[in-house]
Amino acid sequence: MNASNNPQATGQSVIVVGGGIGGLAAALALTRQGVAVQLLEQAAHIGEIGAGIQLGPNAFAALDALGVGAAARGRAVFTDHIIMMDAVDAHEVVRIDTGEAFRERFGGPYAVIHRADIHLSILEAVQQNPLIRFRTSTQIAAMSQDGKGVEVTDTEGNRYRADALVGADGVKSVIREHMVGDPARVTGHVVYRAVVERENMPEELRINAPVLWAGPHCHLVHYPLRGGLQYNLVVTFHSREQEQWGVREGSKEEVLSYFEGIHPRPRQMLDRPTSWKRWATADREPVERWGQGRATLLGDAAHPMTQYMAQGACMALEDAVTLGEAVRRCGHDLQAAFRLYESVRIPRSARVVWSTREMGRLYHARGVERTVRNMLWTGRSQSQFYDALQWLYGWKVENCLAGNTAQ
């Protein structure tokens, strides 16, 4: 939505560091409160690496609040189910229907989308917004603040000043390093991601759902992208090596070496990709504060998490909308707004970080733990599944500052 639909510009300004999904969404949310934004992105070109991501109803509630829900829906694939299979014997463990009853319950759909497509859906609105200035090839080296504002300096020595600062600069956030300075927690779990063309996807696996095959110390996920013309494939395993946090090219040979004893039905997918990107994953322990004074954090900079609940981008979108609502609630007192925002976002995102770790343990269960895992959801009705997911998918703009999305 253009700034012409926004409240009158207030004369306030915020620097947002990072032009990913969270940073772009934060810029839109702030301009909807009349705040001008200087977006600073270290990459030379705006875009996203990676492959697919999943969007729950909470993400669509946030996208709608930012005025970009229709654009995102136009590029997404709406799924029929969320499915977990046992990768050893290929039997179904869990199937959650995400059709009409799910949409009625949570007020929105479940969908999958290419990361570049969701980024583009937000970027288009940012580029049309006269309250947003966007600068690329700008890597931040230092920040400082005083009673009147915040200043950041890039690696070229350029300085940028505004009333406040939002660090949305990702998992290796420079802004977090300045404000929190805590270490990352390298998980030892390695994630391989690839995109497979439809004709190269086994026909029996062309399923309109995120399908997770849970194996001992490993799992696979696949789902359609771009109208089913492509399929996203993600494989995860516990590495034998001492991992360093980062991304590099991977090899099919390494992937295959971790998937011995897996049923042929999911295992056949491992031969399909022509190239793999390899992520050594990390998260961080939740902390009691993300910033102080006129600065705060958002998205992966605030709460990096592993991928086991598919909520990383969803949480960043929630963050952005909540930040904008906090500015409105606090009458444009940005310091008060940042602390209000943190007071509701820190416990919610911490719950997701910890829940995500536990889901990773369940997915990778072996032996007796695998047997127990496979029994956990036996006989559970769809409405019982929905009840269990209410805390996560029940998030809406109307309740985002309440600190409780169960109602």
From TrEMBL:
It comes from the Bacteria. Residues 13-327 form the FAD-binding domain. Its EC number is 1.14.13.24. It catalyses: 3-hydroxybenzoate + NADH + O2 + H(+) = 2,5-dihydroxybenzoate + NAD(+) + H2O. It is an enzyme of class 1 (oxidoreductase). Keywords: Aromatic hydrocarbons catabolism, FAD, Flavoprotein, Monooxygenase, NAD, Oxidoreductase. One of its GO terms (molecular function) is 3-hydroxybenzoate 6-monooxygenase activity. Its cofactor is FAD. SUPFAM superfamilies: FAD-linked reductases, C-terminal domain, FAD/NAD(P)-binding domain. Belongs to the 3-hydroxybenzoate 6-hydroxylase family. This is 3-hydroxybenzoate 6-hydroxylase.
